[in-house]
Here is the input.
Amino acid sequence: MEVLDNVPLAAHTTLGLGGPARYWTDVTSEAGIPEAFAWAEKRRLEPLPWGAGSNILAADCGFDGLVLHMVLRGVDFLPAGRVLAAAGEGWDSLVTAAVARGWAGMECLSGIPGSVGAAPVQNVGAYGQEVSQSIVRVRAWDRHAHAFVELAAPDCAFAYRSSRFNGADRSRFLITAVEFQLRPAGAPALRYPELLTRVPPAASLAEVRAAVLTLRRGKSMLLDPADPDARSAGSFFKNPVLSAGAGAALTARSDGAMPPLYPQPGGNMKTSAAWLIEHSGFAKGFQLPESGIRLSRKHVLALVNAGSGTAGQAAALARHIRAAVEARWSVRLELEPVAVGFSLGELG
Ligand code: NAP
Here is the structure.
């Protein structure tokens, strides 16, 4: 096991923020995982799984533990639409390969940054599709059992942008591989109105992928070094899921435009974090004085590092927005990225 000292996290995050990780190791095989955890435990260090750094806000002071950089590789396309992919594979490379084979099930998830291993954690979804819809099982190191386990999809507690991996069992499992069931020669998922208007009737998987990429590019939600608004961690706040009562209370607080409310399973209502932010007085591109962090000029849901930003400034903007939305709408926005190295309350 090779361990590096003081690795700057900024170089490993899409936001380009974060101080040094005290220790860092590249995990290239499952065999190295028990040793890596034992190494951290022996030194009483916190282990931190790390994928592509696309959904992380790392503090300026860095992280005082051991980063487990998941770089396990390998994708097997098996008979009848089964796919087995290692955690360190790039998510969009997998989608590209599935679409090229004509296998349906992940085409709307085109262009999402990050790794295969991170996708089940928040049950990534977009444009009417969720990764949980095609997951058969997740393979992981179980820190409680000290063993590799395989969790069938029903045991993963998948829900809207959540799972047991970021819920009840946060920090327990280190995902090493994911098995999917796709649909060879299947039709694309065309459920999302914004997408439906942009594809021809009976669109192919490739046409849907192209339309999703165009939509995402228009919102600077594709990784693109040439696009200054893409230097972000994607959506910075989760779309709130409210009880029916809280949904009604939200509507009652409006004195003009009505907040969007989409019915959810169990009678809950989902609303749009972007709508709440915009209707709390924030325009695209908003920036606090003397800060190198601003809202994206394409989408108020993304915080962008304008180049000279710090994680402290990102935290200040997050606090400012959360406070304003709560004051106006009585809704507490939750952060979507994983915050690393921050103390309690620093993010509002
Ligand atoms: P958007 O299209 O402006 O939608 C904002 C919110 O309204 C989302 O909660 C979306 O639901 C909901 N919504 C819009 N039209 C809807 C409809 N007809 N029925 C039900 N719900 C509807 O969102 P955006 O920020 O530009 O993002 C585009 C897509 O990428 C969305 O699907 C979004 O969820 C997804 N995304 C996912 C992640 C992630 O997985 N972490 C991060 C960024 C964006 P849904 O969220 O259910 O689509």
